[in-house]
Design brief:
alpha/beta, 12 strands, binds zinc ion, 249 residues, 8-stranded mixed sheet, 23% strand, Collagenase (Catalytic Domain), two-stranded antiparallel sheet
Length: 249
């Protein structure tokens, strides 16, 4: 695997698994839902000012409006947990890597994240096991391809989110999601010069999926499907992230 990186061959960063469900409830339940989840409040943060340009794409758009992305509510914190089992280095190292990358995504999108701490939860990308509607915290974890088959081949990570509609406005928002990183790829990178930057880039790419970015055809963007050495979000990625930070509450 390390030879592949050094020789400059591309490494597929991720695949994306998405699920969607519709929540339709009577008016009273909906009002309670709105109270509990703070729909109608003000955004917790502001997206960054970024120069225009580049290219980006959304994983999902609202029904009947291809310009409006499905996004997380900017009025609620995105709660997440980390399972550092399988990450290179110490659990603290893993938490630090995640915290730094999450802070970058938060700064650009204006979305606020709330770290709930470590967990023993294991990732799964099986549709029937994705915690649809249960609103479990986002799980950021490491696994090998024996446990998570979506990591088979040259896949370094998987990221995605689950969208749910509140019913009244028919508007879809992400309510939970996952990022799963390939522990073998990260082990190899841990031994390489410049490996830390690659670990960070893979995580940023998957967090891009988590907040709603899809792949683009331009290798200048971090959301290109293959890892071609782009170390950070580029101009188009950043414009997409800003748009995803302006979702409906
Ligand atoms: Zn990807």
């Amino acid at each position: 695997m390390s030879e592949r990186w050094r020789s400059g061959l591309v490494l597929l960063i991720s695949t994306v698994v998405l699920a969607a469900m519709v929540f339709v409830g009577p008016g009273d339940e909906l009002a309670a839902f709105r109270r509990v989840f703070g729909i109608g409040q003000d955004p917790l943060g502001d997206p960054a000012d970024v120069p225009p340009g580049g290219t980006y794409a959304f994983l999902q758009t609202q029904r009947g409006d291809a310009d409006e992305p499905v996004a997380w509510s900017p009025c609620r914190e995105i709660r997440y947990q980390v399972n550092p089992d399988g990450a290179p280095g110490s659990a603290n190292d893993a938490e630090e890597l995640v915290a730094d990358a999450v802070a970058d995504v938060s700064q650009i999108t204006g979305l606020r994240f709330d770290y709930l701490g470590r967990t023993d939860r294991r990732p799964s990308w099986k549709a029937d096991l994705v915690p649809m509607g249960r609103k479990e915290p986002v799980l950021i974890a490491w696994a090998d391809e024996d446990e998570v088959e979506e990591l088979e081949g040259n896949v370094a990570g998987v990221g995605g989110a689950v969208a749910q509609s509140s019913g009244a406005d028919g508007w879809f928002r992400y309510v939970t999601g996952q990022v799963t990183l390939d522990s073998e790829v990260y082990d190899d990178l841990d031994d390489e010069r410049g490996g830390e930057e690659q670990m960070r880039a893979i995580l940023l790419h998957e967090l891009g999926h988590l907040v709603g970015l899809d792949h683009v055809d331009s290798p200048a963007e971090l959301m290109y499907a293959d890892n071609v050495g782009q170390p950070d979000f580029a101009t188009g990625d950043r414009n997409g992230l800003v748009a995803l930070g302006r979702g409906r509450c």
